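#structure-requests
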Amino acid sequence: MQESSAFRAERFLKSYPPKAAQLIVTIYGDIVEPRGGVLWMGNLISLCSGFGVNESLVRTAVSRLVSKGQLSGERDGRRSFYALTEEARNEYHLAADLFFGPSDSDCDWIISVSSVPAEQDKLLRAGFVNLGGNVFIAADRHDRPLNDVSFRSSAEDPNSKSFRTLLRSSFKLDELSDEYMEFTKRYQPMDAVLEKTLSDQEALLCRLALVHDYRAIRFRDPRLPPGALPVDWPGHDAHRLFAVLYAGLSEAADNFIGQHLMNQAGLLGATPAPIKSRLETISKRI
């Protein structure tokens, strides 16, 4: 990767260099999954080098992802290719809905009761919070797990001060608010970058940086009903900024992908149907 590209991308990364495994997950989610799930190892090494992650770290991280069942390796002559496993592709597809799907709509709540530690951990990983004892609550999104003692419910007075105070404290909304404001502060200057001449390579690195940081926050967002969020919720500005920047970088970034990145069959498609659908959906949030 060119030095100018690495320097430009560095400005928009939260941690530099990022952890290799997390960066690889970002690359596969943004670039590879919607293009069949397979990438040449040489391309992966080059992309990671743009963020200061060296070849040794990349190979070690890939080996760990293989051990965890997220990647599988194949050889074609002297070249190695790594493919997402079917299970990983399903997970990436669900994650993509968080980044590129429609904005969160209003919804009711799910209340689950569990005294089993493993089940409690599963609920917490899926966006539930503990209200005390064995009672857990989450916004009623389609991907929430349901146990044997789950109830769908609505708030009797969703605008009451006590209810909103409970949500703010239980879901740690103040911390999440700070993260969204920091994201917007960090990436707002990228608007000015879009107005300048970016190489296709620089555009791809900047887009990866954008997705990498947004992903880290979005996965922690409990996706509460918009009506239950505080007034002037900074997440709204962050979501819109992500959409604007992602759309603005994509033409050049996808050009680079179509001309330089490959799987066993040859170059990856620049804008296959899943990419066109992603861009159409995200443009509705601008």
